[in-house]
Amino acid sequence: MSKQPVDQSRRTWVTVACIAGGAGGVATAVPFVSTFQPSERAKAAGAAVEADISALKPGEMMTVEWRGKPVWIVRRTPAQVAELDKLASELADPNSERKPSELTPEYARNVHRSIKPDVMVAVGICTHLGCSPSSKFTPGPQASLPDNWPGGFLCPCHGSTFDLAGRVFKNKPAPDNLEVPPHMYLSDTKILIGEDKKA
Description:
Layout: H1 8-34, H2 40-45, E1 49-52, E2 60-66, E3 69-75, H3 78-84, H4 100-103, E4 119-123, E5 134-136, E6 152-154, E7 161-163, E8 183-185, E9 190-193
Antiparallel strand pairs: 1-9, 2-3, 3-4, 5-6, 6-7, 8-9
């Protein structure tokens, strides 16, 4: 049996084809792997959102978007935390007993309505007609607020007021406290909004 001479040009084309095929496979895999990240559409439909609160100082608020809604994260000062205990008689639902399965997860059914006393997480939409309240953290007399204002939120549409735990004051149009979304801490400075350990 005689040996046939090797066609070098054919061998070169086979090598080039293999390399091109491998590169094409990698190029195809990279976009595919990136699809594992939630799309904007998935986020709007309810995908969890991570928030880094490492730069949030006491008395400051940040807003992230979850399900197309603003979610407020407020780092309360020690004075603001202490004030929450004094407001029960002025609030419509101080213990978050109304619609608890819709508005307040079990781990937030406390005076702070939060996992950690100094960090509030709430959906920034008034429970009356869906306006977004304004932050009014400075206590004391101000326009459209009572003289004994403790600090909190004022809905500009119809005047509903909420304390710094998102609890609605009595005799206001809003029927319920602000919603506390499901959330959990991934670390001391990172919060995952939209999921919790019980979800």
